[in-house]
Task: inverse folding
């Protein structure tokens, strides 16, 4: 099973560190996963990657919560109504997206 996780974030995001830890914990448990970490540095890059806000995790190119790309991507924090998932919840999200 080929899984690519892409974490998009910007420095100073209060939830970026947890998202980095979450992706790393998943990678440690699943050695075959490919992880890409993208630090978004400016508005132009945010527009180029259709940035949904920091942090965003894509699973094989799709947003982990199926949030569509915004019409006007920008440097912004991302709001998760229930908070970022635990590792167990994240594993379920990945399993459901395959």
Result:
């Amino acid at each position: 099973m080929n899984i690519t996780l892409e974490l998009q974030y910007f420095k100073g995001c209060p939830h970026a560190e947890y998202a980095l830890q979450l992706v790393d914990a998943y990678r440690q448990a699943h050695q075959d996963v490919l992880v890409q970490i993208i630090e978004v540095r400016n508005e132009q890059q945010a527009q180029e990657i259709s940035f949904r806000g920091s942090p965003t995790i894509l699973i094989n190119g799709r947003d982990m919560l199926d949030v569509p790309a915004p019409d006007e991507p920008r440097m912004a924090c991302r709001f998760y109504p229930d908070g970022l998932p635990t590792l167990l919840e994240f594993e379920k999200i990945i399993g459901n997206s395959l």
